[in-house]
Amino acid sequence: MKTVKLQIVGSPNLYDDIRVYSSAVRMAFNRYQDGLSEKEVYAAVSKFFDFNCWLVQSAVYDGNALFKSNGNKRVLFGGKYSLVQYLKGLITKEQFKYARMLPLCSVGQANKRGNRLVDFDLCRNQVIYKPSRKEHKKNQILPRKEETSHRVSQGSRTCRPKEDARDSQVHG
Known about the structure:
It is built from 7 helices and 3 strands; from the N terminus they run H-H-H-H-H-E-E-E-H-H. The protein has 172 residues and is mainly alpha-helical.
C-alpha cells in the first residue's frame, strides 16, 4: 500500500465530507470495541450514515486499524490538549470539533484500477475528489520537490495534455 500526503492550496471544499467521515470512523472504532465483526460494523455504520458506500468502507477500514493499534484502551479523539483547552474555555466548541476531525481516507483497489473517489492530475497540480457520479470537486495541490525535479528531468513526456473527446471530433 502506498500513502501519499499532499498539501491542498486554499480552502478545500471537503469540510462536510470530512466531518461525516470522522464521525463514521469513531463509530466504527466503538463498534469494534463492542466486539462486532467487520460485516456487522459495516452494516451499523452504513445504516446510520447516508454517505458514499466506498467512504463508509474506508471509515470501517480506518476504525479497524485504530482498534488494532489501541485495542480496548480508551481513545480520546482530538487529543488531551484540545480537550483541556476546550474545558478551560480557551477554544470554542467549533474549534474543538475541528481538532477532532480525522483526515479523509479513500482506500484504493488494484482490481478497480486504483482509487475510486480520487483522481490525481499531477500535470495540473490538482486532486479531483468524486463523491458522486455527478459531483467532482477540484482542489489545487502544492507539488512536492522530488516530483517537480523528476518532471523537469523527464521533459514533456511525463505531462501530456489529455485529448478531450470534443476536440478530436471533426466538425463539418
